[in-house]
Amino acid sequence: MNIVILTAAAVLLIVAFITDVSKQIIPNRLTIFFFGAGVLFHLIAGGIHDGAAAVAGAAAGFVPLLLLHLAKGIGAGDVKLFGALGAWIGVGAVLQLLLYSILYAGLIGVVIAVIYRSFSGKITVEMTALLLPGDEPKKRQWLRFADSGKKFPFMLAVLPAAITVWIMLG
Question: Where are the transmembrane segments (predicted)?
């Protein structure tokens, strides 16, 4: 893959990871900007054919996750993120990233369930919060998140999935 494409995708993933983990949101302006930039880059670099391929990649990332979003499995920001990523990395890579993200999310969910159920939940959540980076208010935010029954930020699965895909493609 082209260094510009890899760099753009990496920047998008890192910023999305930071905002999703810290604020539990992936900003629209981030995903819209990267979607537009991805399509424009491919149009300029390879003409209408590559521009169409970028749109196809965006659709391949967006549509399956839209179905997960409608089933209340993930947030809308994750859907738009995968659309933007697809515009940069294409159909094949975004589908691989989607597959590995779902596998990592399942693994994370199983680990959380086993830990929570094995060690009287609340105690384990509080002990885990001690290991988290950040100050006390940040740790309390994670504790409220864990106690609320909400799902964990999907970016916790997407980032290792992206590393896995890039190693495989490398």
Answer: 28-45, 52-71, 83-116, 152-169
Query: Which residue shows structure tokens 């100050």?
Result: 135
- CA-based end-to-end distance of the chain: 8
Look at the chain and count its residues.
Answer: 170
- The pLDDT assigned to 160 comes to 95
Instruction: Please state the pTM of the whole predicted model.
Output: 0.81
The Cα 65–Cα 161 span in angstroms is 15
Q: Which residues of 53-63 are buried (b: 16+ CB within 10 A; e: fewer)?
A: bbbebbbbbbe
Three-state secondary-structure class, residue 26: coil
- Residue 117 per-residue DSSP state: H
3-state secondary structure 121-146: CHHHHHHHHHHCCCCHHHHHHHHHHH
